[in-house]
Design goal:
The complex is a heterodimer of chains A (265) and B (60).
Chain A: E1 3-12, E2 30-35, E3 38-46, H1 52-59, H2 62-79, E4 85-87, E5 93-94, H3 97-106, H4 108-118, E6 121-130, H5 132-136, H6 150-184, E7 189-193, H7 198-201, E8 206-216, H8 220-233, E9 237-245
Antiparallel strand pairs in A: 1-3, 1-4, 1-5, 2-3, 6-8, 6-9, 7-8
Chain B: H1 6-9, H2 14-23, H3 36-56
The chains are: A alpha+beta (265), B mainly alpha (60).
Chain lengths: 265, 60
């Protein structure tokens, strides 16, 4: 059989019956590859599709990339409730299950320590947006009726508008810092993603902060309440929280090429 | 409740997914079909692709 192995995640062993009927990329059934107390979550991929040129072509199509990303996400999300799960980078493909088992064996110690670190923890996303209205216009400061110098008034008004815009930006930035710090207290770790392009996200305001927090499962509710409170106290920004996610953004730095915002190792 | 139950009720935004899938996740090496550096290349060309798609949209 010449099938490659698309690998979604590594997890502590669990009963494969729990994910029976789960399908992954290209609708292929998902199975487990075991080494001691670790399993890799895998589905077969036709060898022709696993070739570099074919993959590259697929990944350069947004539709294909989205399909792969959603399949990858769905499999990881299906596994995560059952066992500590270490998501792998999208499009991690080995030549076959035997090779996957070797990787589990060769990287056993590192995979185990990464799993230990993530046990009982989830990732929550927090995005802070600057309100577009406060960025563009403040209250208009029209010249009074007694004005005898309309030209100078116009320039002053322009200056004031620019000042208001800068004030709004500073206000949003400091609100974002307060939110970031206030949530950090409840989190194990935090990583910054690049702010999202509003044209891609379709969001109304400018995304000024795009964070991922690693949070103990028992503190999810508290974190959510704190996020709501901080968002309510903040002026000029809105907050969107996502998750819980499998801890994609918090893989052991020794296992990842992800620069992130840095972490003490 | 501000943590929306997106996982169950609505489709995850692709941008949120790609933040995590293209930058996060464990990288384990060894006979990968695509080298990690190549994935970064894909990401770059993808960004160009997405940008071009966005630009084709009429401004609202």
């Amino acid at each position: 059989m010449s099938e490659a192995s698309y690998t979604y995640a590594v997890a502590r062993s669990f009963d494969p019956a729990l994910i029976e009927g789960l399908h992954g990329v290209d609708g292929a059934p998902v199975h487990l590859v075991r080494h001691e107390d670790l399993v890799a979550v895998v589905s077969g991929l036709a060898s022709a599709d696993a070739e570099e040129s074919a993959l590259r072509a697929r990944l350069e199509s947004l539709e294909e990339l989205e399909a792969i990303a959603r399949a990858h996400y769905a499999v990881v999300a299906a596994v995560a409730p059952h066992s500590v799960t270490l998501p792998l980078r999208v499009v991690t493909i080995y030549s076959g299950d035997a090779r996957v088992a070797e990787v589990l064996r060769d990287d056993y110690a590192r995979l185990c320590s990464a799993l230990d670190r993530l046990a009982g923890r989830v990732e929550l996303g927090v995005k802070v947006y600057m309100d577009s209205s406060s960025a563009r216009s403040g209250p208009s400061t029209a010249a009074g009726p007694e004005s005898a110098t309309p030209g100078r008034d116009y320039l002053r008004q322009r200056r004031q508008q620019r000042q208001q815009r800068e004030d709004a930006q500073q206000q949003a930035a400091s609100a974002a810092r307060r939110i970031e710090a206030g949530l950090q207290e409840l989190a194990v770790d935090c990583r910054a993603h690049r702010p999202q392009d509003s044209q891609l996200s379709g969001a109304a305001g400018e995304n000024i902060l795009n964070l991922a927090y690693l949070v103990e499962v028992r503190r999810i509710e508290e974190f959510a309440r704190r996020a709501a409170r901080l968002a309510g106290e903040a002026n000029g920004v809105s907050v969107v929280t996502t998750g819980p996610w499998a801890p994609y953004s918090f893989v052991d730095p020794g296992l990842s090429s992800h620069g992130g915002s840095g972490e003490a190792s | 409740v501000i943590v929306r139950d997106e996982l169950a009720t609505q489709q995850i935004a692709l941008v949120d997914l790609l933040d995590r899938l293209l930058a996060g996740g464990v990288v384990v090496t060894g006979e990968l079909t695509l080298a990690i550096a190549d994935i970064d290349m894909v990401r770059i060309s993808l960004r160009a692709l997405i940008t071009s798609i966005v630009e084709e949209r009429p401004l609202t």
